[in-house]
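Section handout, structural biology tutorial.
Before the tutorial, make sure you can parse a SMILES string by hand: atoms, branches in parentheses, ring closures as digits. In the record below the ligand is zinc ion, and the chain has 380 residues. In the tutorial you will relate the predicted structure tokens back to the input. Do not try to memorize them.
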Amino acid sequence: MTMLIQKSYKFCFYPDAAQVEQLAREFGCARFVWNQGLIRREYAYQQWGVSLSSAYDISSQITGLKKLESHAWLKDATAGALQQKLIDQDKAFDNFFKGRASFPKFKKKSHAQSIRYQLDQRCVLNNYRAGELLKLPKLGELKVKWSQVPGGIPKMVTVSKSASGKYFVGFMCEVEQDLKPMTGKVVGIDVGIKSVVVSSDGFHSGAPKYTYYYQRRLRKAQRVLSRKKKGSNGWKKQRIVVARVHEKIANSRKDFLHKLTTKLVSENDVICVEDLNVSGMMRNRCLSKAVADVGIFELNRRIQYKSAWYGKEVIKISRWEPSTKTCSSCGQIRIMKLSQRVYECECGLVIDRDLNAALNIKRAGLVLSGAIYQLDKVAA
Ligand SMILES: [Zn+2]
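Predicted structure of the complex:
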């Protein structure tokens, strides 16, 4: 059995001098549009506490600006990219107002840059051959390092430059995905501090190895940077060193989550997770470091979409279920300090704290899904 899914691809590419120049223009225009939009919205938020959803409004202003001689340079950018920046800003504000993200920030030249736009589907066949050719408007053919051959035809394309100066092109394709075979297994997972995931069948994922190693390298690189004169050549070079370490951390984190979620979704048919309010947890200082490191939001997001890809099911448990405090054997509730790593109950159960929570999450998930006939298997 197969299923049509949206799959995203990202490749490194090597621009020539003209492309580097054009991309600098594109990024510059996109930054300008983003920052202009932000100024207006920040004002509206501070004055009236409201969200202006004004992609359309500002977009007509851009059209006006392009006609002015002083802003004619905006014409150098791909039009769709500027429009898309404003749509993305709408989304960023939506996330902020719903408590899912912090207030959108101004874009700086020294940070990572990106633009996105729709590829013209009428011309795409002339401009794209999977694994061989990719031509973009105003840029021409890109020298792409195809690390895999994408299936399907790209629609939305993202071109980005990392803070350390590497160029990437990414896009989504609709592809046919084989479903993963059914295993008949149900699992509950708890997001822990020492181990990213502890599952009800006793699997401890551990944490990505980068944590200590790269954190140390990052601190060292930042110390060197702080000793350099701001704006000097040495400072500029060292800033790229710092950005590279940041990228290494982000990549190894992504890689870890990718492998972990593929494993969970392959080995189980039903996955029960806690529906965590991440911004609420961020306020809890004890947990915030672990949460930021692990990216619970990202973990849940990946489990969610991979389950949809492979024909598996996710059950979300309310975070108000006392999964940590409840005894998974007899159901009694007791107070647990964050430092207590082992759950001990009067009924005689002595169990790892996170495993206990995972078992409770599994039980709650089964109750929610109505699969009560399986309940007696849960504690086993
Ligand atoms: Zn008990």
